[in-house]
Amino acid sequence: MTREQAYIIAHDQVHQYIRTHGMRKSADRDLVLFAMYSLTGMHTVDEIHEQLVRTHPRNHPSRTTVYNSLELFHQLGLVMKHNLSEQQFYYEVN
User: Fold this and answer.
1) Is 43 helix (H, G, I), strand (E, B) or coil?
2) pTM tops 0.90, yes or no
3) For every one of its 94 residues, what pLDDT tens digit does the chain have, with 9 covering 90 and above?
4) CA-closest candidate to residue 17, choices 93, 69, 89
5) How many C-beta neighbours within 10 Å does residue 73 have?
């Protein structure tokens, strides 16, 4: 499976979860998911946020939105969460 195909499947899983749990759709959440599938390796919330600021300077998600989105993706099994440092977590596509 290509990374693009994996992204499409993950996107569908997120949107299905959102629908079934009465959550609202969020363009920012979609940007975070796309960023995760565009990057390789492990990244912190700050690194992902900085990437989004660079790619979407006028309309980027807040750090809080990045964190909350990553936690949702982790809950859904789409990303892995690593505790390599006492001060921050690292996330990578599962």
Assistant:
1) strand
2) yes
3) 898 999 999 999 999 999 999 999 999 999 999 999 999 999 999 999 999 999 999 999 999 999 999 999 999 999 999 998 778 899 999 8
4) 69
5) 24
